[in-house]
Amino acid sequence: MNNNHIWLSLAHLSGREQEFIQEAFDTNWVTTVGHNLDAFEQALADFLKNDSQVLLLNSGTSAMHLGLILLNVGVGDEVLCQSFTYAASANPIFYQMAKPVFIDSEPDTWNMSPEHLERAIKDRIKKGKKPKAIIAVHLYGMPAGMDELLAVANRYEIPVLEDAAESLGSMYKGFCCGTLGELAALSFNGNKIITTSGGGALVSKKKAYSEKARFLSTQARDTAPHYQHSKIGYNYRMSNIIAGIGRAQMLVLPQRIAQRRKNNQFYRQHLSGIEGIRFHTAPSPDFFSNYWLTAIVIDPEKTGGITREDLRLALEKANIESRPLWKPMHLQPVFKDCPYYGEKVCESLFNDGLCLPSGSILTENDLTRVVEEIGVSLKNSCNTKSSNKL
Ligand SMILES: *Cc1c(COP(=O)(O)O)cnc(C)c1O
User: Fold this and answer.
1) Per-residue pLDDT tens digits for 322-365
2) 9: Cβ below 6 Å to ligand 1?
C-alpha cells in the first residue's frame, strides 16, 4: 500500500493562480496597488456579505495588530483574550505594550466562555481598570457562542475583535464569522482554508475603520507632495502579485469548505464505533463550522490507557502527521505572568486533544489510511471492542 506522507493541512491550489499573477506582470502593477487587490477585496466582501469592508494585509497577525490599534489599545491597557488559541491572537497585544488577560473556553464550542469573560471583566474593573477590547476566536472553524459573548461585551461596552483566521466560511446564525464583532482578522497563511502563501485581511462594517487601517498599513503618509508623517505607520499591505493568488483561491472557496466538511464527516462515520473518541462538534444548527481542522479528544479511561500522545506517535510512525490541540496561552512561558480566568477546560483539551489530517487536498485513500491506523492503535489495547470492522 502507498505510504506517502500525509500532512495535516496543505495548500491546495485552484490551477488559475498563474493567470492572475501574470495579469499583475502584464499590467506592471507589481506593487501594493492594483486590480488583483481590488478584485480579491470585492470577492471577499461579496462572500462575507453584511456590509463588510475588507482590507487586504500581508498577514492575519498584521490584521490583529491593526485591529487593536483601531480599538485604541495602547500602553498599559488590558485586553481580554481567549487562552485556547494560536499565539498570533495574543502577540499583537504585546506589540501595543498592552497586557493580555486570558479567558478559558466553554466545553461545547471550545471557544471563549461567557461566564469567565464576565467574571474577568468584573474583577479587572474592581482592580481599577476596565479592559479595552475582547479577542474572541472561532477555533478550528467552530463559531464562538457570539450572542452570549456579545451580550457580556455590550453590557460593559467593550468592543470585540474576532480572530476569524481559521473560520472563513463558518457561520453563526446565518452570518459569516468575521462579520459578527466590531472588527475581524482573516488569514491566508499556507495551512488555512484558502491561501495566498501568506496574507490576511481586516474586516469591518465601517468605512472609517478600513480607511484608517489602509493609511496605517502603508506607512501613514499624510497628504503632501513630499513624504510627511504625523503618525507611526506600518508596512502591512498585501502585494498585488500575492492578491492574484487570492483571486484564484476565491473561485474555489465553496469547494474547499465542502471538502473540509466532507473530511470531517468521513472521520465521524468511520471512527464513531471506537470507544474513547469525542469530536469537536457544533452544539446546535446555529453553528456552521468549516471544520478547518477535524479535532478529536481521546479519553484514556475508555481506550484502555492509550493516550493522545500514544496515538500521535503511532500515526507518525505510519507517516501521518497529526498535532496536539493549541497549547493554551496562559501555559506558555512567554505569557506566564498574565492573569487567567477559568478552570481547566482548555488545559484538558490540550492534554487529550488531537488534530487529524484535514486538508481539502486529501484523497479518500489518505483518509482511509488515517482511519485504519487509528482503529489499529486504539483497538489493539482495547479488548472490549472487537467487532468494529471498518
Ligand atoms: C493562522 C492564525 C493566525 C495568524 O495568521 P497569519 O496569517 O499566519 O499571521 C491568527 N490566529 C489564529 C487562530 C490562526 O490560526
Assistant:
1) 999 999 999 999 999 999 999 999 999 999 999 999 999 999 99
2) no
- Looking at residue 390, its pLDDT comes to 44
Specify the CATH architecture of the domain 17-253. Answer: 3-Layer(aba) Sandwich (3.40)
Tell me the pTM: 0.95
189 within ligand 1 shell (Cβ under 6 A):
yes
Residue nearest (by alpha carbon) to ligand 1 atom 13:
86
Mean pLDDT score of the chain, rounded to an integer?
95
Q: Compute the distance between CA of residue 162 and CA of residue 60 in angstroms, rounded to an integer.
A: 11
Domain ranges for the chain: 17-253, 254-389
The mean pLDDT of 309-333, rounded to a whole number, is: 97
- Please say whether the beta carbons of 48 and 178 come within 8 A: yes
Q: 3-state class of 355 per DSSP? A: strand
- The per-residue pLDDT for 1 is 56
Indicate if ligand 1 lies below 6 Å from the C-beta of 60.
Answer: yes
Domain covering 254-389: architecture = Alpha-Beta Complex (3.90)
- CA 156 to CA 179: how far, in whole Å? 20
Considering only CA atoms, which of 167, 281, 326, 241 is closest in space to residue 17? 241
* Residue at 340: amino acid letter: Y
Establish whether residue 249 lines the binding site of ligand 1, counting it when its CB lies within 6 angstroms of any ligand atom.
no
